[in-house]
Amino acid sequence: MEGIPHINTGGILIPGKNKELEFFPCINNIQGGKEVSDNKAKIIIIGGGAAGMFGAIFAARNGNDVILLEKNEKLGKKLYITGKGRCNLTNACNMDELFQNVVTNPKFLYGAFYSCNNFDVMNFFEEIGLKTKIERGGRVFPESDKSSDVLAVLIKELKRQGADIRYGSEVTDILLKDNAFLGVKLKGKPEIIYGNKVIIATGGLSYPATGSTGDGYRFAKSMGHTVTKLYPSLVPMIVEEIDLVKKLQGLSLKNVHIKITSKKKEIYSDFGELLFTHFGVSGPVILSASSYCIPYMEKKDLILSIDLKPALSKEQLDARILRDFDEFSKKQYKNALDRLLPRKLIQVIIALSKIDPEKKVNLITKEERSRLVDLLKGLEFHITRLRDYNEAVITKGGIQVKEVNPYTMESKLASNVYFAGEVLDLDALTGGFNLQIAWSTAYSAGSAV
C-alpha cells in the first residue's frame, strides 16, 4: 500500500488478500472487531529499543493500555551492544554541558531535557533496581558493566506496568482517519491493530543488523513529514595512508589532541582516545569528530593532525628529547625513542622523520630534531571517507524537528502521532548523550500520550 489513506466516509479502505480494497469501520477503540467500553486509551509503541521501552513504560504508568510492537525476537538489540556491551546510559554533566554535546538541533531539546534530565534518568534506573557508576568524562554505566542488566530492568518494569510486548511484529503501514492516528498494519497479518495514539521509536539506519532499517522515516514521509538527508555518524574514518595505519593497527593512544581541517579551516579539535585500525582511525575522539566532518566529506580535503604530546609545548618537547639523547648519546636513533613513544609507533615516526635510523643520537642536528618535534606535534593523515552504517553508532539526520512539538513530541501534521529517539533529526557526541536524547524524547512522548 502506497502512503496512508485519508477517507472521510466513516471508514478506511485497506488492500485485501487479492489486493482489492476492503472497507473497515473507523471506530478508534476496537479489539478483534469489538468496540471496547473502558475509558483507557490504547497506546501503540513501534520499536522496542531504548526510546520505545522508555516511552512504553511512562505511557503505561499514566494508566494507558500499551502495546509494544518489536520486529525482532527480543527487545533492545542495539542497546545490548552499546558501549562495547557495557551500555553508557547517560552522562553526569551539568545542563550546559548536556546541551553543548548535542550537535544537531539542541534548542529543540530544551523542553525534553528539562522534563527528564540526565540525573532523572540515573534516578529512574536506580529506582527500578539498576545500580550505576560514573566513570571518566562523566560517563554513566551499570555498576555490573553489563548492558544485559539494563535490558533486564527495563523489561521487568515493562511487565510490571502491564505492557503488552509483541515480538516478531513488523509494522508495514500506519493508518490515519481525518489526519489522525487510527491503527497499524503488520507484515504478513491481515488484521489491523487499532489504537488511540502511537509513538514511533523505530531508530535510524545505524547497525542495520539490529533491525534499524529506516522504517520510521518511511512512516513519517507517508504522513507528509520532511526527512533530512541521512548519514552514518559517530563512525570510524578511512585514511589515504593505508600502508602506514596498517603498521599501527591495534595501537590505542590515550590523551592525544586531534585537529581536523578543511582548506586550513578548523572543523573539529579535542582531546581523547584514538585507535588505529587496518583502514584508518577510530576511538571516541574520532567518532565524535565524524559528526562535524560529514558536511565536508565531498570536498575530499580533510586533514587529521594528531598531537602525540599535547601536554608539552614544542620547546618543552625539544628539551625532553635532548635529555633522552644526552642519556643515550652512544645509541643509534632507532634505539633511542623507547621512553618517548609506544614501540609500535617508533618505526613509523623514524621513517617519517627522515632521520637516518643508524645515526648516533649525539650526531643528530638541531634541524633534524626540529623536524622530529613537528612530527610528534602534528602527525598528519588525509581522510578519504567515513565507514558505513554497519559501524555507525547513530544516524545523522531524520524527521525535521520543526514539524514536531518539542514538549510532547507529537507530529504537527498528524494528530495522535508521536516520535521519539534516533528517528528525529537529533544527534550528539559520544559519552552517553545520544541515549539521553532517546530517554528524554521518549519520556516526553510517553508522558504526553
Characterize the structure shown:
The chain is an alpha+beta fold. The chain folds into 3 domains: 11-231 and 391-448, FAD/NAD(P)-binding domain (3-Layer(bba) Sandwich); 236-308 and 380-386, Translation factors (Elongation Factor Tu (Ef-tu), domain 3); 314-377, Helicase, Ruva Protein, domain 3 (Orthogonal Bundle), CATH 1.10.8.50. Helices cover 29% and strands 25% of the residues. The strands form 8 sheets. Strands 17-20-19-18-21-22 form a 6-stranded antiparallel beta barrel. The protein has a 5-stranded parallel β-sheet with strand order 11-6-5-15-24, with helices on one face. Strands 7-10-9 form a 3-stranded antiparallel β-sheet. A hairpin with a 2-residue loop joins strand 18 (252-262) and strand 19. Helix 1 packs parallel to helix 6 (147-160) and helix 10 (314-327) crosses helix 12 (366-377). The chain is elongated. Residues 1-38 have low confidence and may be disordered.
